[in-house]
From TrEMBL:
KW Signal (keyword) present: yes
Pfam families: DPBB_1
Any one of the GO CC terms: apoplast
Start and end residues of each Expansin-like EG45 domain: 26-129
CDD domains: DPBB_EG45-like (cd22269)
The keyword Signal is assigned to this record: yes
Single GO BP term: systemic acquired resistance
Leader sequence segment: 1-23
The protein's name: Expansin-like EG45 domain-containing protein
Keywords, in A-Z order: Signal
InterPro entries: EGC1/2, Expansin/allergen_DPBB_dom, RlpA-like_DPBB, RlpA-like_sf
């Protein structure tokens, strides 16, 4: 019985660590419409809770359709109160060719759910759902 409890504790700790490893931190930007056409879905509208990912994650289109939960962590400039409470789930619909390896570009609507639009860019954490 004691061995089973230890095994469960190790398994639980492993699950917790895996979720931490899967979360990425970086910079989130806002981009405005039009959102169609997109590099993933052409002229098929995917809604407004969408994002474009950096070339490393986009991986030649393999990221198309993935969902990410995004949370604002803090500002990158002097705009007061850059973050709002909560998170937003976005769908990857495009490549953000100008984004660096840890950057994600959110639709204006998605960005405004987690951050002040005046901030323009914020530190974010994003996790694949």
């Amino acid at each position: 019985m004691n061995c089973q409890i230890r095994l469960l504790m190790v398994f639980g700790a492993t699950i917790c660590l895996a979720s931490v490893v899967l979360a990425k931190q970086g910079i989130g930007y806002s981009y405005g419409p039009p959102y169609v056409p997109s590099s993933c879905f052409g002229f098929r509208n995917q809604g407004i809770m969408i994002a474009a990912d950096n070339p490393a994650v986009y991986d030649g289109g393999k990221a198309c359709g993935r969902l990410y939960k995004v949370t604002c962590l803090g500002g990158t400039n002097n705009i007061p109160n850059p973050c709002k409470r909560g998170e937003v789930t976005v769908k990857i619909v495009a490549l953000c060719a100008r984004c660096g390896a840890d950057e994600i570009s959110l639709s204006r609507d998605a960005f405004s759910r987690i951050a002040n639009l005046k901030a323009g860019r914020v530190r974010v954490e994003y996790t694949q759902v």
